[in-house]
Amino acid sequence: MVQGGVTVSLIRIQQLSVSYGTPPRPVLSDIDLNIEDGEFVCLLGQTGCGKSTLLRLVLGSEHPTQGHILIDGVEHHQPDRTRGYVPQKYSLFPDKTVLGNITFGPEVSGFGLLGHLLPRFYRRRREFREKAYDYLRRIGLHESDAGKYPDQLSGGMQQRVAIAQALMTEPRILLMDEAFSALDPGTRKEMQRLIRGLSQDLGITVLFVTHSIQEAIQIGSRVVVLARESASNGSSIVLDCDPRSGDSGLLARQLLDIMETSKETPSLNLAAVEVGDTQFAGF
Question: How many independent structural domains does the chain possess?
Answer without folding.
Answer: 2
